[in-house]
């Protein structure tokens, strides 16, 4: 189990996520970006 978790006690739940981009290079060029996020939802 993770260190922190919240049990789901209802049949519906909204999950809120936030994200920030981090520069991994000194040289950056403005433009469009694309990202994907993968996560695992564990339930019995």
UniProtKB/TrEMBL annotation:
Where is it found, in Gene Ontology cellular component terms?
Answer: pilus
Q: What InterPro entries does UniProt report for this protein, alphabetically?
A: Adhesion_dom_fimbrial_sf, Adhesion_dom_sf
Domain of life from the UniProt record = Bacteria
Gene3D superfamilies reported for this sequence: Fimbrial-type adhesion domain (2.60.40.1090)
**What's a BP term from Gene Ontology annotated to this protein?**
cell adhesion
Q: What is this protein called?
A: Type 1 fimbrial protein subunit FimI
Organism the protein comes from? Metapseudomonas otitidis
